[in-house]
Each structure stands twice: as structure tokens, then as C-alpha cells.
Design goal:
The termini are far apart. It contains six helices and no strands. The chain is an all-alpha fold.
Amino acid sequence: MRAAAHRLRQALRRLNACLGRRGSYLAIAGLAWTTYGLGIIIDPRAGIVRGVGILRHIMPLEVWGGIWVICGMAAIAFSFTKTRDRFGFFAAVLPAALWSGAHAAALMTGDFPKAWTSMATWALAAVRLIVVSGWVEPVRKPRHQEQP
């Protein structure tokens, strides 16, 4: 058991070194969006259906779930590219911003008065991603430096 835990720790350290803080955050967001999109496709909840009514007039809810999945997977893929991760952040912000806007429309039209919580939640998720996208990746110092 200890050997397996040690190997897992090593693998996570290597992954963290590869992704960095920005990439790790982007990969986790991408994984969350992919999971959320699958939930929309497989079993959309009533609040989602009511909150994004305006989007359902454009395309079926399953297609929107697919957009979440595609954007999530793009965020994961771009999290491994240090120089092009801005595309991943854009992909991650897009569905959250759309969802927030759809909930805002449902709130303003009176279709779903409880939409304000989802509107705020998705808006803050988008803002959080925008803030992290502006961070500079910290320079890592080697753990063990040899003495001259």
C-alpha cells in the first residue's frame, strides 16, 4: 500500500511540475466542465432546464451539454501548453459566461425567479477563470541546490 501511495505521489508531483499552477487550475476547471456537461446530457436537472430556456430555443440542451464537454476537454488539453493556455482559459470561460447570461435572461423575463443564484455562481466562475488567466506562472526554484 505504501509503495502505491508513493508512486501516486510521484506521479502527481510530475504532473504538477508539467502543468504549473495555472495549468493545474485550468485542468481542474476543464475536468469540472466536462463532468457538468455530461450531467446535462445524461440527466438535466429541472433548474437547469428552466434557467437556460433562452439557450434551449437556439439548440437542444444536449448540444449545450456537448459544448460544455468540448470546452472542458479543450481546457484540459491547453493546460499542458504553457504558451497557449490562453485558449484553454477562453474555452473554460465561454460556457460559464453563456450560462450566466442565460440565467440573467431567465431572471429578467420572470421565467425563473430563482435564477439569480445560478447567474451569480456562473458569473463568478467565469471571473475567477479570468483572474487566474492573468496570473504569471511563478518561477520554480530547484529543491536541492548544490553548494559551490
